[in-house]
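LAB NOTEBOOK - FOLDING QUEUE
OPERATOR: T.R.
BATCH SIZE: 2
PURPOSE: Compare the predicted structure-token outputs for two unrelated chains run back to back under identical settings.
PRIORITY: normal
REVIEWER: second-year student, initials M.K.

ITEM 1
FIELD SEQUENCE / FIELD STRUCTURE:
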Amino acid sequence: MPTKRKKITRKRVNANSLEDWQVKFLLTGDEPQNEGFRGFSFCWAIPGEPSVRHGKGPTWFETWAEIKNSATVISWLKEHPGQKPFAWWQLEAPGNRKILECPQNYQRKPDEEPLEETQSFVFGVPILDPYEFNPDERLIVESQAAYLDRVGLLTDAEKSRLKDADFEPEILTAKDFE
């Protein structure tokens, strides 16, 4: 016997419907330590791919798609030339930043998968275990501006506002991953 199912509708998301800390999280990746964040769970469901939804909220893709062209995000981009928001890096970036130097424990042999294929990334940088670093080791990656320029996503307007130092590689140590 057929069962009548109730259609679940989700409210559309816009920058005005999100709390300030939610927008900040999408822009910066900073996880606030409050009750709301612990209950805030965007699903990583990719459109067109089967996945399990966790929580009742919208997916990351739905939320980001709704707010990425909002005045809030456009203002953030103007204040941060040569950079992209956290959610862009996690959901839209066409690749990761080049690794120019990495700690000994993370260097790959020619027959191994490259580091870029085996790690999770944040802002296009691999998330490494700080306890596998020697104190004098470092991870050097291309800057966000250099990456965006290399892949053709840095606008002339942004370039005109950047300094040479913005294109210098970023140097990360174990402390940056704690």
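ITEM 2
FIELD SEQUENCE / FIELD STRUCTURE:
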Amino acid sequence: MVGPVTPLPRLILPPAVPDSDTLSLIQLVYLDFAGGAFRAHSGVGIIDWRGHDWLGTGNLGSISAVGESTELQPAKVQISLSGLPAEIVGLSLREHYQGRRAQIWLALLDGTVMPSGFAPFLIFSGRIDSMQGVVGEEGAIACTLESRLADWTRPRTRRYTPEDQRQAYPADRGFDFVSEMSERELLWGTTRR
């Protein structure tokens, strides 16, 4: 006998796209540096999203195509920003950046406001791989981001030893007793006679 039929969920379509001459598609970039987060977008001006100000780079910034592949290989994205003062370029290159989080969203912008019902769509999430700077009259920064799949091929150098555990967690003594436990006889579900 067949049980009750459950209806398929209905497709919920987003609201109609606003009819406006100021409507544009932008990319939002988030780079997590140790000294503070960098938030920028490909439009002009400052926009507020998720409680943070995102700086518009306009023609001074560029992002390479975010691609996908049927192969099991990590994706890379290039981000560049030009027209920067030399002190900003120097500061960014002294910063610890490798392995820090990076994200890119695609969003709809109506002037300087994101229309309600159109949340930005995450198109890339990964890590900062490398950064190069050009110092001069107008400085520039080029940043390479890689997907988390690149981490898959890196060897792990962690060991299950007390010394290795104390490097990550100095107060943890859990691995001090591993060698004793391998020699100990445990009785499960019965009492010792």
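REVIEWER COMMENT (ITEM 2): The beta strands are 23-33, 36-41, 46-49, 52-56, 61-63, 76-84, 101-110, 121-134, 139-147.
FOLLOW-UP: none requested
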